[in-house]
Recover the amino acids of this structure.
């Protein structure tokens, strides 16, 4: 099995993967705005993160009846 060389961004709202040596994917994720517990969605600007969040918020349970 290959060693994992990335981890999830430390910002709880963000879904990006970062190298093990880094803690966050963007300065935004480490800013006071990015770490605000009232923030439900990440605003790091990475399309992959936004797509995953959109899928989690709107692509799950209940979509099959649309």
């Amino acid at each position: 099995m290959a060693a994992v060389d990335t981890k999830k961004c430390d910002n709880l709202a963000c879904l990006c993967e970062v190298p093990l040596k880094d803690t966050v994917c963007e300065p935004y994720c480490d800013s006071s705005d990015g770490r605000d517990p009232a923030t439900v969605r990440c605003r790091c600007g990475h399309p992959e993160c936004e797509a995953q969040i959109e899928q989690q918020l709107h692509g799950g349970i209940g979509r099959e009846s649309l």
Observations:
- Strands lie at 6-8, 17-19.
- The CA atoms of residues 15 and 52 lie 7 Å apart.
- The chain has one domain: 6-59.
